[in-house]
Design a protein that fits this description.
Elements: H1 3-9, E1 14-20, H2 27-34, E2 40-45, H3 52-56, E3 63-65, H4 72-81, E4 87-90, E5 95-96, H5 99-111, E6 118-127, E7 133-144, E8 150-152, E9 158-160, E10 165-174, H6 183-193, H7 200-212, H8 216-228, H9 234-250, H10 254-263, H11 272-284, H12 288-299, E11 311-312, H13 319-330, H14 334-345, H15 352-365
Parallel strand pairs: 1-2, 1-4, 2-3, 6-10
Antiparallel strand pairs: 4-7, 5-10, 6-7, 7-11, 8-9
Helix pairs in contact: 7-8, 8-9, 9-10, 11-12, 11-13, 12-13, 13-14, 14-15
């Protein structure tokens, strides 16, 4: 093997770059989960007043201060500028790499071709009570340093990384212990007071912040402005339709709720989440056969694992089966109801609803009186 071949097959080196502020509750957990997988740890602190820096010093002396200027991209780009290794990995302080994903990352590190410039990973956003992933997206997570990729956007920033790309099944898990619920909204409102013109992306994420603060009418206005631009990625348009449907549902406006559920079909084939929404609407209105149609369709749909959009794993696994159990029970078809309950149980075996349904349906199938009779 030539020297060139040896070099091309040697493990890549990785700098971990993070921005932090008052993260004493989670930073140690995060760094312990990744320290053996990277060659350098860069921490940029934007004004911690707790023990964050003290905890970080167990792992690295590469700690830099950065004055906070209401701009996440500025802080992340500064962190990236301090990296010295071949590739840069970024995480947030409340992220964790599970053992199976750490092993996958180490395997990738040992075998990755240096022709690859952008590596994407799954991002597990939340988990159900059974530990199953409830929501996930895909993010650019590991990039070649020499490409000098830049972060863009003051808040809800994104990494503008274009190049030879590899999509992996490696996952980063978001495991927050707290949430600074007002921070991002305040940044948007300060920008708005300065008279800044929001990009379509800004409109979309500002709308998300408004919705999370229960400011539904203002959120609706922003989502509609975003869709009216006809810009943005299809996945953002689909997510905007889902959020608009949520807002109108909470405002008891069924007509507009349904309008945006159906509008989502303009941007992609029907997703299981929207089929479940339609099933729920029909079920609430006692249109059982229509509900069965939409819930059944949901069981046959699966978002591609390479999807960049928000994936609702519940609607792609147990939820439509549990709802079909309800539907068939109402029709008196206890055999089909039991079958769907057992299909749901494969995903959520310890769920109390599954156990309740099983006991009730077994008594129905055996013609035995149940507690609810």
């Amino acid at each position: 093997m030539s020297e060139f071949d040896k070099e091309s097959h040697s493990p890549i080196t990785i700098s971990l770059c993070m921005i932090v502020k008052n993260e004493e509750a989670t930073i140690e957990r995060c760094l312990r989960s990744i320290e053996q997988s990277v060659d350098e740890i860069i921490i940029v602190d934007t004004g911690s007043t707790d023990k964050t820096k003290e905890l970080v010093r167990q792992f690295t002396n590469n700690i830099y201060d950065f004055e906070w200027i209401d701009d996440f991209s500025a802080a992340r780009n500064y962190a990236f500028s301090k990296a010295t290794q071949e590739y840069i990995l970024w995480l947030d302080a409340d992220d964790v790499i599970f053992d199976q994903d750490r092993q996958k990352l180490l395997a990738l590190k040992a075998t990755l071709s240096r022709e690859v410039e952008v590596i994407t990973m799954l991002y597990y956003l939340s988990f159900d009570p059974n530990g199953n992933v409830a929501y996930q997206i895909r993010r650019e997570r590991l990039v070649k340093r020499e490409k000098n990729y830049q972060w863009i956007g003051a808040v809800h920033e994104f990494l503008d990384a274009k190049g030879t790309q590899l999509d992996t099944g490696i996952a980063v898990a978001h495991k927050p212990l707290k949430h600074d619920s007002d921070r991002n909204l305040k940044i948007y409102e300060r920008r708005q007071l300065k008279g800044e013109e929001f990009s379509p992306r800004d409109l979309y994420y500002y709308a998300n912040e408004l919705r999370e603060h229960n400011l539904y009418n203002r959120a609706i206005e922003c989502y509609q402005k975003f869709l009216e631009t006809k810009q943005g990625a299809p996945e953002e348009k689909i997510a905007a339709c889902a959020s608009l449907a949520d807002c109108y549902y909470l405002l008891h406006d069924e007509e507009n709720e349904l309008k945006y559920i159906y509008q989502s079909f303009q941007y992609s084939n029907p997703r299981s989440e929207f089929c479940c929404r339609l099933g729920f609407n029909h079920l609430n209105n006692n249109r059982i056969r229509q509900a069965i149609f939409w819930y059944t369709l949901a069981t046959h749909l699966k978002t591609a694992n390479s999807s960049w959009g928000l994936v609702n794993n519940q609607c792609e696994t147990w939820l439509p089966h549990l709802q079909l159990c309800v539907c068939y029970s109402r029709l008196g078809d206890y055999k089909l109801a039991y079958e769907h309950n057992e299909k749901a149980a494969k995903f959520i075996p310890d769920n109390p609803m599954v156990h309740h349904n099983r006991k009730l349906l077994q008594s129905k199938l055996n013609n035995e009186p149940s507690e609810s009779d």
